[in-house]
Amino acid sequence: MLLVQLLLVVFTFLRLSYTWEYNEHIKHGSSLMDGRDIFDPLIMPNYVKRETNHIYDEEGQMHIQNSIIDSDNIAEWTPIASNLTAGQKDLYVFTVNTGSTSNGFSPTYEILIFLSGNLCNVQDLPEDVELYVTYAFNDTITEDPSSGISVSFSYGYLESLTVSPIQTDTSSNITSLYSYLYVAVEPRNKTTGQSLSTDDYPGTRWEYHLSISENDLVYQWDYRTWLDILDTDENSALLITGAESNVAYNFTIHDTSIYDIYVYSYNDSLIIDGQFNRSVCAIKNGNYLVSSNGNVASSDIQLDKKDLFVQKIVKDGANSTNEYFYVTGLNHSTSYVAYLTKKIGKSGNLSDVGGIIFEHVSFQTKDDNTCSLIHSLGFCSDVAYSVPTSSLYLGNKTLLAEAYENISRSLYANFSKALQLIPCDTESDARYSPLRTCDDCAESYRNWICSVSIPRCTTGTSSYYMFRNKNENRNSYIDDNIKPLRNYFEILPCIDMCYAIVRDCPSDFGFSCPDVDTTPDLLFNSYNFYNGNRDFVSCNLMGNDTETVNF
Ligand SMILES: *[C@@H]1O[C@H](CO)[C@@H](O)[C@H](O)[C@H]1NC(C)=O
Ligand SMILES: *[C@@H]1O[C@H](CO)[C@@H](O)[C@H](O)[C@H]1NC(C)=O
Ligand SMILES: *[C@@H]1O[C@H](CO)[C@@H](O)[C@H](O)[C@H]1NC(C)=O
Ligand SMILES: *[C@@H]1O[C@H](CO)[C@@H](O)[C@H](O)[C@H]1NC(C)=O
Ligand SMILES: *[C@@H]1O[C@H](CO)[C@@H](O)[C@H](O)[C@H]1NC(C)=O
Ligand SMILES: *[C@@H]1O[C@H](CO)[C@@H](O)[C@H](O)[C@H]1NC(C)=O
Ligand SMILES: *[C@@H]1O[C@H](CO)[C@@H](O)[C@H](O)[C@H]1NC(C)=O
Ligand SMILES: *[C@@H]1O[C@H](CO)[C@@H](O)[C@H](O)[C@H]1NC(C)=O
Ligand SMILES: *[C@@H]1O[C@H](CO)[C@@H](O)[C@H](O)[C@H]1NC(C)=O
Ligand SMILES: *[C@@H]1O[C@H](CO)[C@@H](O)[C@H](O)[C@H]1NC(C)=O
Ligand SMILES: *[C@@H]1O[C@H](CO)[C@@H](O)[C@H](O)[C@H]1NC(C)=O
Ligand SMILES: *[C@@H]1O[C@H](CO)[C@@H](O)[C@H](O)[C@H]1NC(C)=O
After folding, report:
1. Where is the signal peptide (predicted)?
2. Which pLDDT score is estimated for 27?
3. 34-68 pLDDT tens trace
4. Could you tell me if the CB of 221 is within 6 A of ligand 11?
5. What is the residue with the minimal CA distance to atom 8 of ligand 8?
6. For ligand 12, atom 9, which residue shows the shortest CA distance?
7. Sign of the dihedral through C-alpha 358, 360, 361, 365
8. Is the model more confident about 394 or about 37?
9. Which atom belonging to ligand 8 lies closest to the Cα atom of 546?
10. Is 140 in the pocket of ligand 2 (CB under 6 A)?
């Protein structure tokens, strides 16, 4: 008896310390398996279909079958899916396997067992009831739940960790001290912790997925958004993953099926946000309008797609590969909420079960077609924002994007010729700068020319934005070749792009930027400063943002 108590104390201690450790992993959005050779679906046993745990007597009264013998066996990784109604209880056994963790966490003195689960409901659940998962290495929990550890779902999510010590048997084989983990799942009264009676909440069912694994939390959530809204127009939106740049991940092996978005109407997102915003299962089960799930990333981008669809686009950056989601077919002046999910597993072998859910993002479509969202251009490849709609190419974004690109290309052509006359690709001591090359200069100039010839358009007002009459644009090329449909506001280019050409290009060009002290009017009529503290875009930036000047 004393020994049992002592073990419980040790357990509690281990549980706490490990809880802290794996929470750290969750916070960084990576599964514990990343980079490890653990997950291999081919060796995963299939889940044996569960049988009922409820028996009925002669009067038709239902009883919970408390014998563990007939309960279901939970297989490593593959989650159990089940529905419960008030008064019902599910019982499971998980076989603790010393061998199954040998690839990853070598079981030198203990075996970690991760429990994680999702509620899959999409309607309101009663507030005074919680779904509890009780587990222990002793099957007495089937009769006395208080002899085990109970955890409940919160925001549709459950996680826990338990540890089975290992022992060395007589023939010096390593085995787990405990062979089985017993698990009971049951809706209970939140206040009293008592089981419900079968008459409570008729018609309400608690649908859940539960996974037990010696390798990982099959279900995870992340408090960060990991999804940025780049821009929207009247009926489309462009979103990008990986808003933070410094991810420790080898993106050359990026698997484009790893991320998916689920777009909800604002009203339908409220039910998710209230109760299930940590549940991948609920988000996949819910009444979403459109999802990228199953769509293949393609280089054939259809800017003009009209139906409700999410195109996946993958673009390589310097250090990272970003995944873009181009959502089309939306209604104007409407709020939407997007949830991002991430699959777990190794690239090429991602698991269809489980996954990570990130904090949602919301966006609103524009009221009219003053601005048009364009992206994935050939020359100005960093353009991924709304531009003034042309009265010449109304309803055809493909032609609109081409018209803007033609302006940028022709302006760049003259510069390109000039650059060839400067001795910048010669030996480093004959170059204009030992640090910068012609390529740096060409790249900075391209970004600058794109930003000044393809104005970023908005209908929102802010002291940062410049009003443009449709007949008096930033330059005459836009007046003549675009002929904007309506007056608009321009989000001015960031001054950093001007600084970049001064820094990167030979002084022969004589580039200079307006000065904030001596020529502030000139500066603020043409550029603006980057302000990362605002929740709106203060200026339009393309290219390298590592040296932006905050103002
Ligand atoms: C739970 O019930 C719902 C509604 O009847 C059904 O669609 C779903 O397939 C059930 N899930 C399981 C795991 O039986
Ligand atoms: C389970 O708990 C009961 C009561 O505490 C104890 O008598 C029994 O030996 C335990 N069984 C195992 C397998 O530890
Ligand atoms: C110990 O391991 C050996 C080799 O794997 C095996 O043959 C033997 O049956 C094991 N002994 C026990 C008691 O499990
Ligand atoms: C839960 O317990 C409280 C306090 O005993 C009681 O008022 C409430 O009706 C119970 N709810 C259910 C669904 O049993
Ligand atoms: C990324 O993975 C590729 C392919 O496996 C490999 O060639 C490359 O060296 C890796 N890069 C880094 C930085 O680990
Ligand atoms: C959203 O819900 C509000 C309040 O219930 C309702 O007034 C509004 O019409 C709903 N909007 C849509 C688009 O269903
Ligand atoms: C961005 O600029 C920094 C500092 O000049 C440089 O170290 C880095 O390589 C640049 N990144 C790209 C993608 O050019
Ligand atoms: C690219 O990765 C390198 C090495 O991790 C890092 O030093 C550099 O700052 C990164 N560049 C950018 C633009 O993030
Ligand atoms: C657009 O509005 C119509 C009519 O209100 C509605 O039926 C449809 O679901 C909406 N579509 C989207 C994508 O919001
Ligand atoms: C996926 O797993 C299978 C079985 O382990 C393996 O043969 C295959 O090479 C893996 N594919 C990738 C892309 O890692
Ligand atoms: C879920 O909702 C809660 C409460 O509104 C919020 O604190 C949390 O950030 C939301 N998102 C996640 C992923 O938990
Ligand atoms: C846009 O114009 C091009 C070229 O005339 C044409 O092929 C394409 O079908 C047009 N797209 C739409 C949506 O009208």
Report:
1. 1-19
2. 29
3. 333 333 333 222 222 223 344 455 665 544 443 33
4. yes
5. 319
6. 396
7. positive
8. 394
9. 13
10. yes
Cα 265 to middle of ligand 12, angstroms: 30
Q: Closest Cα to residue 276, out of 433, 391, 284, 188?
A: 284
Q: Beta partners for 166?
A: 176
Residue 250 CA to ligand 5 centre (angstroms): 6
Q: How far is the CA of 1 from the centre of ligand 2 (A)?
A: 9
Cβ 544 under 6 angstroms from ligand 7: yes
Separation of CA 261 and ligand 9 centre (Å): 18
Checking if the pLDDT of 435 tops 70, the result is yes
Q: Which domains does the chain have, with CATH numbers?
A: 2-217 (2.60.120.380), 221-367 (2.60.40.10), 370-551 (no CATH)
Query: Looking only at Cα atoms, what is the longest distance across the chain?
Result: 99
Separation of 265 CA from ligand 6 center, angstroms?
10
What would the two tokens of residue 131 be? Answer: 């779904």
DSSP for 313-342? EEEE-SS-EEEEEEEESPPTT-EEEEEEEE
Dump pLDDT digits (tens) for 494-538. 998 999 989 888 888 888 888 888 888 888 888 888 877 777 788
Q: Find the mean pLDDT for residues 100-125.
A: 72
Residue 287: C-alpha distances to residues 199, 236, 278, 352, 460 (Å):
29, 20, 16, 20, 31
In this prediction, residue 165 has a pLDDT band, given cuts at 50, 70 and 90, of: confident
Give pLDDT, residue 464: 85
**Dihedral angle computed from the Cα positions of residues 408, 413, 418 and 424, in that order, rounded to the nearest 10 degrees:** 80
pLDDT computed for residue 551 by the predictor? 52
How far apart, in Å, are the Cα atoms of 380 and each of 336, 392, 407, 408, 409? Answer: 29, 21, 11, 8, 9
CB 345 within 8 A of CB 355: no
Atom number, ligand 8, closest to the C-alpha of residue 317: 13
Burial class from Cβ neighbours inside 10 Å (0-12, 13-18, 19+) for residue 404 reads: buried
- Ligand 11 pocket residue status of 278, Cβ below 6 Å: yes
Q: Which two tokens stand for residue 358?
A: 């990130």
The reply to whether ligand 2 has any atom less than 6 angstroms from the CB of 138 is: yes
CA dist list (Å): 416 to 445, 500, 505, 509: 9, 17, 12, 12
Q: Whose CA is nearest to atom 2 of ligand 3?
A: 173
Share above pLDDT 70 across residues of the chain, in percent, rounded to a whole number: 75
The pLDDT, as a whole number, for residue 359 is 92
Which residue in 156, 177, 145, 146 sits closest to 14, CA to CA? 177
Sign (positive or negative) of CA dihedral 418, 423, 428, 430: negative
pLDDT bracket for residue 351 (50, 70, 90): confident
* pLDDT at 350 (0 to 100): 72
* 183, 237, 489, 536 from 372: Cα distances, Å: 55, 10, 13, 18
The confidence score (pLDDT) of residue 28 equals 29
Average pLDDT of the residues of the chain: 79
Cα–ligand 10 centroid distance for 40 (angstroms): 7
Q: Which residues neighbour 171 within 8 Å (Cβ) at sequence distance 6 or greater?
A: none
CA–CA dist 135, 148 (Å, integer): 5
